């Protein structure tokens, strides 16, 4: 078992702020500065390298934008470099203000990723393509709040690309129509980014990539994607073009936009929170239009934000009051065990979908099967 993933759903911005006004004051910044917390060690055989790269997003040809990508990847050189930041300082300050946490609350979180370490030789698919996994966070959340999941996948040999979608302020439209629009924007952005994934570009983005793959006869990329909440919705929509994204997984995400009527091709895995299973009538109606291999499983005793680092931070630093801020969105009695189970499922799914190996049963002790179909 291994990882984790989190999305902070749009409706948490305002309720979170209102609730925080009723809570006892958090510890002062001076107290926070003396704290230290290391995230759970990744379970795989590799250490994890980290590189942040800004790329062009040409979704709008007339007004191209820039997107920050956070690459995590296997490395053998962790002892020669420094640890990567958990969340960049500017983003961390925005989150602390949003959730009324003391300044510096995210600075004491210690990652298991090492900045600009040279990549180890990654594994290839049977067709000599390089498996790459893209991650899209929940609405209003940075990709760094899902570090545990991403580090775990990288420790097993995958290149994982966390996409830092623009955030910075509470969304102005949290309605289904607004969420559908954002889902469409994200899917288009992901397509624009993934189309830039070439061996030549990777060699300029990831330290040591050219040397590590020189003898591999690399023929291209095979891309999987997963996301939390609205990031999961964007994953399903991105799957409509299997020439761009070949496999997808949604972590407690809804379905929005064109997929409600057109469906999309698999392979696709849904991991759902048992606390919200009553809200999945939409998934039941769309299920027949999801073509190919598909599974929907529920993670026992999990609520929406148990699919993120929020759960583990709330457990390991109770003095910050995170559990109270996310009341009703955290339910796991053992958040680490829940994260490991979700991460294990992610690894098994991408091993199967991108590499053609492994067990895709997913019927573990803490999961229940909701829907299933395979071809």
Automatic annotation (TrEMBL):
Lipid metabolism found in the keyword field: yes
InterPro entries xrefs: AB_hydrolase_fold
GO biological process, one term: lipid catabolic process
Pfam families: PAF-AH_p_II (PF03403)
Domain of life: Eukaryota
Molecular function terms, GO-annotated: 1-alkyl-2-acetylglycerophosphocholine esterase activity
Coiled-coil region list: none
Class of this enzyme: hydrolase
Gene3D superfamilies reported in the protein's UniProt record: alpha/beta hydrolase (3.40.50.1820)
Signal peptide range in chain numbering: 1-30
The protein's Enzyme Commission number: 3.1.1.47
Keyword annotations from UniProtKB, A to Z: Hydrolase, Lipid degradation, Lipid metabolism, Signal
Protein name, per record: 1-alkyl-2-acetylglycerophosphocholine esterase
Provenance organism: Petromyces alliaceus
Lineage, broadest ranks: Eukaryota, Fungi, Dikarya, Ascomycota, Pezizomycotina
């Amino acid at each position: 078992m291994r990882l984790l993933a989190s999305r902070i759903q749009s409706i948490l911005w305002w309720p979170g702020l209102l609730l925080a006004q009723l809570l006892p004051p958090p510890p002062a910044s001076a107290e926070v500065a003396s704290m230290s917390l290391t995230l759970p060690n990744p379970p795989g055989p590799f250490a994890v390298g980290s590189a942040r790269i800004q790329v062009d997003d040409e979704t709008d040809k007339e007004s191209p934008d820039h997107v920050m990508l956070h690459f995590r990847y296997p490395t053998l050189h962790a002892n020669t470099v420094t640890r990567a930041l958990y969340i960049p300082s500017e983003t961390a300050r925005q989150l602390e203000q949003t959730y009324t946490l003391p300044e510096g609350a995210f600075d004491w979180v210690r990652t298991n990723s090492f900045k600009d370490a040279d990549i180890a030789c990654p594994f290839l698919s049977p067709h000599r393509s390089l498996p790459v996994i893209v991650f899209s966070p929940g609405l209003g959340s940075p990709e760094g709040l899902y570090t545990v999941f991403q580090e775990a996948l990288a420790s097993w040999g995958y290149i994982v690309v966390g996409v830092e979608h623009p955030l910075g302020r509470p969304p102005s439209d949290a309605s289904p129509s607004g969420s559908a629009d954002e889902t469409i924007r994200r899917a288009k952005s992901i397509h624009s980014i993934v189309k830039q994934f070439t061996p030549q570009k990777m060699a300029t983005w990831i330290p040591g990539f050219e040397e590590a793959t020189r003898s591999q006869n690399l023929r291209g990329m095979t891309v999987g994607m997963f996301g939390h909440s609205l990031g999961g919705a964007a994953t399903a929509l991105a799957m409509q073009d299997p020439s761009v994204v070949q496999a997808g997984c949604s972590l407690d995400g809804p379905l929005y936009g064109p997929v409600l009527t057109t469906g999309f091709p698999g392979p696709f895995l849904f991991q759902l929170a048992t606390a919200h299973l009553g809200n999945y009538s939409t998934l039941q109606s769309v299920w027949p239009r999801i073509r190919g291999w598909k599974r929907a499983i529920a993670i026992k005793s999990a609520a929406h934000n148990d699919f993120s680092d929020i759960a583990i931070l709330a457990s390991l630093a109770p003095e910050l009051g995170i559990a109270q801020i996310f009341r009703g969105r955290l339910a796991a009695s053992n958040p680490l065990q829940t994260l490991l189970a979700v991460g294990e499922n992610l690894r098994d799914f991408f091993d199967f979908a991108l590499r053609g190996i492994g067990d895709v049963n997913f019927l573990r002790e803490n999961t229940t099967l909701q829907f299933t179909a395979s071809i």
